[in-house]
């Protein structure tokens, strides 16, 4: 069950983040607030179902950081440093794309300046990020089956003749 929810939450993360990276109309402060609220609801549900150890919450980390990126101030070099230290689960390309797509929804917000984005790129140039922008939502985690040893020893097993396993020899 834990592995199923980890996979499901990864797919939620990938689809939501890819939509965020492809749609200018959803890159705003208010969307960041909505995303963070919805993610906290998912995390609360995981805690309620006792699935914290499943790794499902960790698969949402890029989406959480994208939501926080949308909510942070984006003006000074201190803001740029905060973004660089906060967004460790996002690639440089993803951070820059979200900043380029950021759209103010009211007159109190401002667009992200080109100089600020260049400052971010300069600070993140030493990262060895993969060159991909979008997440692969078809990625599947390996299924792990726990080993539970049997209390029955092999020499106590009786094989019925009806199975026609005469070629097996007890050693």
Automatic annotation (TrEMBL):
<dbReference type="InterPro" id="IPR052072">
    <property type="entry name" value="Vascular_dev_regulator"/>
</dbReference>
<feature type="domain" description="Dilute">
    <location>
        <begin position="1"/>
        <end position="126"/>
    </location>
</feature>
<protein>
    <submittedName>
        <fullName>MYO5B protein</fullName>
    </submittedName>
</protein>
<dbReference type="Pfam" id="PF01843">
    <property type="entry name" value="DIL"/>
</dbReference>
<dbReference type="InterPro" id="IPR002710">
    <property type="entry name" value="Dilute_dom"/>
</dbReference>
<dbReference type="GO" id="GO:0051020">
    <property type="term" value="F:GTPase binding"/>
</dbReference>
């Amino acid at each position: 069950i834990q592995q199923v929810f980890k996979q499901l939450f990864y797919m939620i993360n990938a689809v939501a983040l890819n939509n965020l990276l492809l749609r200018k109309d959803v890159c705003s402060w208010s969307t960041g607030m909505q995303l963070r609220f919805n993610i906290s609801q998912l995390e609360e549900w995981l805690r309620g179902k006792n699935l914290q150890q499943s790794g499902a919450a960790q698969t949402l980390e890029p989406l959480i950081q994208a939501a926080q990126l949308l909510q942070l101030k984006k003006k000074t070099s201190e803001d740029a440093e905060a973004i660089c230290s906060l967004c460790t689960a996002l690639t440089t390309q993803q951070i820059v794309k979200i900043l380029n797509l950021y759209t103010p929804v009211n007159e109190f917000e401002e667009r992200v300046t080109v100089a600020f984005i260049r400052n971010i790129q300069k600070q993140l140039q030493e990262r060895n990020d993969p060159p991909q922008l979008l997440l692969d939502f078809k990625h599947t985690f390996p299924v792990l089956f726990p080993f539970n040893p049997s209390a029955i020893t092999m020499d106590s097993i009786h094989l019925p003749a009806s199975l026609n396993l005469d070629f097996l020899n007890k050693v």
